[in-house]
Amino acid sequence: MLNLPPNPQFCQTDVTRSAFVNQVNCIDWQDGIKQVFDNCIDLVVTDPPYGMKFQSNFRKVQHKSIQNDDNLDWLGDWCKELKRVCKPEAHLYVFCSWHNVDIFKQELGAYFQIKNILIWEKNNTGMGDLEGDYAPKYE
């Protein structure tokens, strides 16, 4: 976890002293976002849990399950907080799976104008899940 200074200030006049500027931070969003002032974020690029309890069985070395990936109960509060901290002209790029893209679109659309959905073509072979689903080559 990130060790933050006692009172990090974000979006102050001298942003060079912020604990968040020009850094990748590993911190729970519910803790980190409280330290961000209103209307100061220009860009959000994030890959949150997809709410589908994903576990790949394709790899030889298994990764741990993704924490909190069994539901999307947090999504509405997260969108509301993003709206608070983002500037009106901010851009958001939110990765999600096609399994729940409608839920993400609905929740984000309540606070932001969604202009398009971008498709990331992965250029790899999809194997499926042996239960009948085709494996997508995109996200």
Please explain how this structure is put together.
This protein is an alpha+beta fold and 139 residues long. It has helices spanning 29-32, 75-85, 101-109, and strands spanning 41-46, 86-94. It has a two-stranded parallel ribbon. The protein is globular, with a radius of gyration of 17 Å. It starts with 28 loop residues before the first helix and ends in a 30-residue tail after the last helix.
Essential attributes:
139 residues; alpha+beta; two-stranded parallel sheet; 3 helices; globular
Summarize the structure.
By secondary structure, this protein is of the alpha+beta class. It is built from three helices and two strands; from the N terminus they run αβαβα.
Rg, alpha carbons: 17 Å
Spatial arrangement of strands, main beta sheet: 1-2
Shape: globular
Pick out the low-confidence regions: none
Q: Which whole number gives the mean pLDDT?
A: 80
The total count of helices amounts to 3
User: How many distinct beta strands?
Assistant: 2
Which structural class matches the secondary elements?
alpha+beta
Largest sheet, strands/sense/barrel: 2 strands, parallel
> Strand-and-helix sequence, N→C?
HEHEH
Q: State the end-to-end distance.
A: 27 Å
Residues in helices, as a percent range? 10-25%
Beta content:
5-15%
